[in-house]
Amino acid sequence: MAARCRTRSNFEVKRVLVVGLARTGVAAALFCSARGAVVHATDTRSEAEIGDSVARLRDVGVALSFGAHDESILRAQDLVIPSPGVAADAPLLLAAKR
């Protein structure tokens, strides 16, 4: 039987931005939040287009932004996690590299 990760220390009090809220982005946001991170997630789609995942994310305290990505969201982030469906050359990801 595999040991479960019980430590929160790797993410506790870290500020994490998840870019893209398809399956992997939602899973990453929930994973980081469960380990103590302060999570903000963003997607270019509207809240209605994302659907039921919005309530699950809000229930665990994930801050959400919809519509166009605002680069100011990058301030004070310790980690940026792009969802696989987000293009590597997306303006927000390019700004995160600077």
Description:
31% of the residues lie in helices and 19% in strands. The chain has 98 residues and is of the alpha/beta class. The chain has a single domain, classed as NAD(P)-binding Rossmann-like Domain (Rossmann fold, 3-Layer(aba) Sandwich). β1, α1 and β2 form a beta-alpha-beta unit. The longest helix has 12 residues, at 23-34.
How would you briefly describe this protein structure?
This protein is of the alpha/beta class and 98 residues long. The chain has helices at 23-34, 47-50, 53-59, 91-97, and strands spanning 15-19, 38-43, 63-66, 79-82.
Give the C-alpha Rg.
13 Å
The CATH architecture? 3-Layer(aba) Sandwich
Helix share, percent: 25-40%
Overall shape: it is globular
Number of domains: 1
User: What is the CATH class name?
Assistant: Alpha Beta
Unreliable segments (pLDDT under 50, ≥5 consecutive)?
A: 1-5
Largest sheet: 4 strands, parallel
Distance between the termini: 42 Å
- Any idea what the CATH superfamily is called? NAD(P)-binding Rossmann-like Domain
Secondary-structure element series: EHEHHEEH
Q: What topology, given as strand order, has the largest sheet?
A: 3-2-1-4
Question: Roughly what fraction of the amino acids lie in strands?
Answer: 15-25%
Total helical elements:
4
Q: What fold name goes in the CATH topology slot?
A: Rossmann fold
Please, what is the oligomeric state?
A: single chain
Number of strands: 4
Round the mean pLDDT to the nearest integer and report it: 89
- Name the structural class: alpha/beta
